[in-house]
From TrEMBL:
<dbReference type="GO" id="GO:0005758">
    <property type="term" value="C:mitochondrial intermembrane space"/>
</dbReference>
<dbReference type="InterPro" id="IPR023005">
    <property type="entry name" value="Nucleoside_diP_kinase_AS"/>
</dbReference>
<dbReference type="GO" id="GO:0009117">
    <property type="term" value="P:nucleotide metabolic process"/>
</dbReference>
<dbReference type="InterPro" id="IPR034907">
    <property type="entry name" value="NDK-like_dom"/>
</dbReference>
<dbReference type="GO" id="GO:0005524">
    <property type="term" value="F:ATP binding"/>
</dbReference>
<dbReference type="GO" id="GO:0046872">
    <property type="term" value="F:metal ion binding"/>
</dbReference>
<feature type="domain" description="Nucleoside diphosphate kinase-like">
    <location>
        <begin position="36"/>
        <end position="139"/>
    </location>
</feature>
<keyword id="KW-0546">Nucleotide metabolism</keyword>
<keyword id="KW-0067">ATP-binding</keyword>
<comment type="similarity">
    <text>Belongs to the NDK family.</text>
</comment>
<keyword id="KW-0808">Transferase</keyword>
<dbReference type="InterPro" id="IPR036850">
    <property type="entry name" value="NDK-like_dom_sf"/>
</dbReference>
<keyword id="KW-0460">Magnesium</keyword>
<protein>
    <recommendedName>
        <fullName>Nucleoside diphosphate kinase</fullName>
        <ecNumber>2.7.4.6</ecNumber>
    </recommendedName>
</protein>
<keyword id="KW-0547">Nucleotide-binding</keyword>
<dbReference type="GO" id="GO:0005759">
    <property type="term" value="C:mitochondrial matrix"/>
</dbReference>
<keyword id="KW-0418">Kinase</keyword>
Amino acid sequence: MGSLGRCLARSLLRGQPGPSRPPGPRCYGSAPPELQEKTLVLVKPDAVQRRLVGNVIQRFERRGFKLVAMKLLQVWEGYNVVRSTRAMVGDTNSATAAAGTIRGDFSMHVSRNVVHASDSVETAQREIGFWFQQDELVAWESGDRDYTYGP
């Protein structure tokens, strides 16, 4: 089971009798509502063909963002997620994308730069609307919300 599945399983166990949580990595991504943003990340066909989807998802989870919808697409949510995503993804031009960024590590050419990421909160809202109906976005709370973002 992937970390998203473990996080969902943990959230189902909250408030139920018995063991408090299964062992495993912490779940992140639930900022207070006033700090929430959503962004759209499209894993492009060249990344899918090269089997990089899991690597991309893991990088977002490690940054504390949570996946809230998926159609072979990902929408990430969290505090300052748009700016953080742009930094994680790297420059559009793979030749100038920094090492350690998704494009810097995996992109070969500007036309095959592995992912698309929204460049602003406003753009993200518009782009999310192109790909998802409101009822397709999953609302869930991480058990580690207070640990990640404070009380």
